C-alpha cells in the first residue's frame, strides 16, 4: 500500500511540474529566444528607473489558481557608457525572487537560475517568455490581472532599481499589453 501512495504522490508532482513548465513556455515563440532586442523601442515607450537605465513593456503573469509561482518580463535599456550587471531581484510579493533563464536540455525546456544578466552599454536586454525572466516563487497572495507587482533589481554595485510590473492575464497567448 505504501508503494501505491508513493507512486500516486510521484504522479501528482509530475503533473504539477508539467503545469508550471507549460505555464512559463506557452507564450514562447521558439525555444531559443535571443535575449537582445529584435526591435528598437521608441523613447516614448521608455520608463526611466535609474541613472542611465530605462525599461519598456513591463509585465508580470497573473498566477494560475492553485500555484504560487509567476514570472516577470520587461526590456531593460541602458543609455549609459558602462555595462549594467544585475545580480539579484527581490519583491515583497514572493518569498523567493530570482533571475532565471529557460534553456533546452535533452529536447526538454528547463528553467535555471542565473548568477547575473548584463545590459550592455548603449544596449538592451529583453526578459521574455521562453527566455530570461524574473521568477517569483512562494507567492503569498495571488497575482491578479489589473494589480501591480513591485520588484527591485539589484546590480553588482548594490544599486537598487525599483520596477512596477502590471499584472496581466497572459493565458491564451496574450503576452502584450493592449
TrEMBL record:
Domain of life of the native organism: Bacteria
Pfam families for the chain: PCuAC
Entry's transmembrane regions: none
InterPro entries registered for this protein in UniProt: LpqE-like (IPR007410), Lxx211020-like (IPR058248), PCuAC_sf (IPR036182)
Protein name, as recorded: Copper chaperone PCu(A)C
Amino acid at each position: 500500500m505504501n508503494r501505491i501512495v508513493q507512486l500516486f504522490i510521484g504522479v501528482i508532482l509530475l503533473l504539477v511540474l508539467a503545469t508550471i513548465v507549460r505555464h512559463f513556455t506557452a507564450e514562447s515563440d521558439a525555444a531559443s529566444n535571443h535575449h537582445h532586442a529584435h526591435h528598437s523601442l521608441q523613447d516614448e515607450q521608455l520608463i526611466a528607473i535609474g541613472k542611465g537605465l530605462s525599461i519598456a513593456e513591463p509585465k508580470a503573469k497573473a498566477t494560475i489558481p492553485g500555484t504560487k509561482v509567476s514570472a516577470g518580463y520587461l526590456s531593460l535599456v541602458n543609455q549609459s557608457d558602462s555595462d549594467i550587471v544585475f545580480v539579484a531581484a527581490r519583491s515583497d510579493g514572493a518569498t523567493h525572487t530570482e533571475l532565471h533563464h529557460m534553456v533546452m536540455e535533452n529536447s526538454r525546456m528547463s528553467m535555471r537560475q542565473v548568477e547575473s544578466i548584463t545590459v550592455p552599454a548603449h544596449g538592451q536586454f529583453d526578459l521574455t517568455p521562453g527566455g530570461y525572466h524574473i521568477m517569483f516563487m512562494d507567492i503569498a497572495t495571488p497575482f491578479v490581472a489589473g494589480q501591480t507587482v513591485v520588484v527591485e533589481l539589484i546590480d553588482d554595485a548594490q544599486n537598487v532599481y525599483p520596477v512596477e510590473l502590471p499584472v496581466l492575464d497572459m493565458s491564451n497567448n496574450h503576452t502584450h499589453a493592449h
